[in-house]
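Hello,

Our lab assistant flagged a job as stuck in the queue for most of the afternoon. It eventually completed. Since we weren't sure the result was trustworthy after the delay, we are filing this so someone can double-check. Below is the sequence as submitted and the structure that was eventually returned. Let us know if re-running is recommended.
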Amino acid sequence: MKNLFWIGNGKVVLPQGVVQGGSILVENGKIAAINSNCPKGVEVIDAQEGYVLPGFIDIHVHGGGGSDFMDLSEKDVCTVCNTHCAYGTTALVATTMTCSDDLLEDAISCIRSVMKKQTLGAQILGLHLEGPYFAATSKGAQPVKELRIPTRENLEHIIRVAEGSIIRWDAAPELPNMQMFAQVMKENGILCSIAHSGANATITTQAFDWGFSHITHFYNACTTFHKENGIVHSGNIEATYIRPEITIELIGDGRHIPMESMLLAKQIKGADKICIITDAMRAAGTSETVSILGPRNGGTKVVVKDNVAQLPDFSFYAGSIATMDRCLRTAHVYYGIPLNEVSRMLSLTPARLSGVEHCKGSLEVGKDADIVIMDKDFYVQKVFVQGILH
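-- returned structure --
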């Protein structure tokens, strides 16, 4: 059956601006026309003067709906995808966390199994491995007992298990063997990102020269202006700001990053170098006040307080409980960033970093009909993934 419909009476959000009274024609899961008249006999979907945006792409998300990508269950993987899809995420990069190699391999295999047959929910684009090569001093909520140093043999083994599905791998560049780590990532076309690092600016800049090109949850578990043995050093943040090619991601829940810090990042880096992410854990999309970070069996207990997940002693945040619609409201409604720029940070820049800009990330003719319709207050009304209403 031909999939053909016309979305009209909306404010269409394009990379360059917002078109009042715009429209989208969808045919066979693709965008066939923008701001065209409605063909005769075609199903009409009334946006009711709301906003029509490209589907959100979350490149750093651990869980939601009570499930986590580390639960080793295809049902749980699907629950995460379906939960975030309900809030406008049409594609995502499934994120693992620091754990044993055996658990990591099992998680990769489970996620890849769903990727091969997935028909509903946010489409899994690939894998993001967050750890286990982090600095204990900047571990955040990552389990310290599983932190370790990489070897080429180990890296290549995990990459073989994943069979080309790893999009990104994070590490702390001050650890031993990090030049080798960056080289292995380059050899395999994997985005190499700094995370949970205690490095100063000198080490961070060296890492950029090795091939690290992205900063995971910028500002969080990152270093800044500080003293080492009585000598003042800059950190990850300053080194990133003076290298225009380096991309960053910002947790958009309104708790991890204050308004002024997000506005500063946007002013210096620009929307085309920033991805807004959720870093969501399993409590996202639920009303849970006590939850688990990481695998359901053996994960870390967390509590939800002040609309954010935290370790029980409140020493660290433990991921967010945000969905991408909340991230949009934070950046646009509360922080005042123009809507088309927020849309680029939620969709187009993440699509580019994930290697799918040719088919996703913006409302353009020929791209997948991944579309979100929101009301005037930016709450999700309808979500389409490749033209299918979810």
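-- support follow-up --
The delay was a queue issue, not a problem with the job. The result is valid. The chain has two domains: 4-52+375-389, 56-358. The mean pLDDT is 94.
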